[in-house]
Write a structure and sequence with these properties.
The protein is mostly helical. It contains 16 helices and no strands.
Length: about 325
């Protein structure tokens, strides 16, 4: 059966000369037999989709803590929107859609409970610091599958690690995800902020609306089309200067008016306090960690790193449940 080989041949004949071909991957840290039907990046995508860390994204905060409504984004819905944006761009440019999707689905696996509040808390409290992009890679290299990791290809891990603004991936597919992440969170966070009455569409500066559009749909359409039209036939992923500057300006506007807004972030200090108390509790009561983390310590991992890994992997509701278990009188706890 030559299904995988035929798919690799299709990549060679159809994809752009600038695409990352599955057969040219730098490979995995541990060699393993090839799948008979799936190229390596498709296989990575499937491994991420089926891992426990991906499922937990459903119950992790995107921006709004404890929102009143069912339609606010979570870390999982954000991830799916990034994936959709990235796949649209990759398909139009004839780049490797499997690689793009794998990077997109895995890029935020390392996010903490309570959004960036949890990340900032762990970064301030852990001796080695904490960055969610590094934790995403740690999850797929070390923590998943009982300490065996997912053994993903180098290209997928590179894209996951370097999706943040200050970094740059090595592949065009990774660069697509890096931009798609920003496109997704800027626009869906505007939508959620309007839903939460933190701002209105008219609050967005006119100079950005005139270039990008007056609705979420129009802005997504403008940004995605602009990337495609400016990147066709190039060994790079580009935007026109006016659209890129408008997107950067809109991102800055969101930081000033939403991401640091007391309405949107009013519960953050409580969330940080909750997580920090859990951190110190487990640091003093290491035996309360699950068996996997105790085994990591027995194998040479530091206690602090094991506690950090455990807390970073929690969902919002699991962290709250553990806080109630350890710090609230039983008569006060919600059954």
């Amino acid at each position: 059966m030559l299904i995988r080989e035929n798919m690799e041949l299709l990549e060679r004949t159809y994809l752009s000369p600038f695409a990352t071909l599955s057969e040219n991957s730098k490979g995995r840290d541990r060699e393993e037999p090839q799948c008979d039907i799936r190229p390596v990046f498709q296989r990575d995508r499937d491994r991420i989709l089926h891992c426990k860390s991906f499922r937990r994204l459903r119950h992790k905060t995107q921006v709004f803590l404890t929102p009143q409504g069912d339609h606010y984004r979570t870390r999982l819905t954000h991830t799916l929107e990034v994936s959709q944006n990235a796949r649209t761009i990759a398909k139009a440019l004839r780049l490797n859609e499997d690689l793009v999707e794998a990077i997109a689905l895995g890029h935020d696996l390392g996010h903490t409970p309570f959004g960036h509040a949890g990340e900032h808390m762990l970064n301030s409290i852990c001796e080695k610091g904490f960055k969610h992009n590094c934790q995403s890679v740690r999850i797929v290299e070390v923590l998943e599958k009982g300490g065996k990791g997912l053994n993903l290809t180098w290209e997928v891990r590179d894209g996951m690690l370097n999706h943040q603004t200050s970094l740059m991936p090595s592949t065009l597919e990774g660069k697509i995800v890096r931009l798609s992440d920003k496109i997704a969170y800027i626009n869906h966070d505007i939508d959620d902020a309007i839903r939460g009455k933190v701002l209105s569409e008219q609050d967005i500066p006119l100079e950005y609306r005139e270039i990008l559009g007056n609705t979420t749909r129009m802005r997504l359409n403008t940004l995605i089309h602009n990337i495609i039209s400016n990147s066709v036939g190039k060994n790079d992923i580009c935007m026109s200067e006016d659209v890129e500057q408008a997107m950067k300006g809109l991102r800055k506007f969101m930081f000033e008016n939403v991401y640091r807004n007391p309405v949107a972030k009013g519960e953050e200090e409580r969330a940080k306090d909750l997580l920090s108390r859990l951190f110190y509790y487990y640091s003093k009561n290491i035996d309360q960690l699950p068996e996997q983390y105790l085994q990591m310590i027995d194998q040479g991992e530091t206690k602090e790193q094991a506690v950090c890994d455990y807390i970073a992997g929690m969902t919002d509701r699991y962290a709250i449940a553990k806080f109630e278990e350890y710090f609230m009188p039983k008569a006060w706890q919600v059954n």
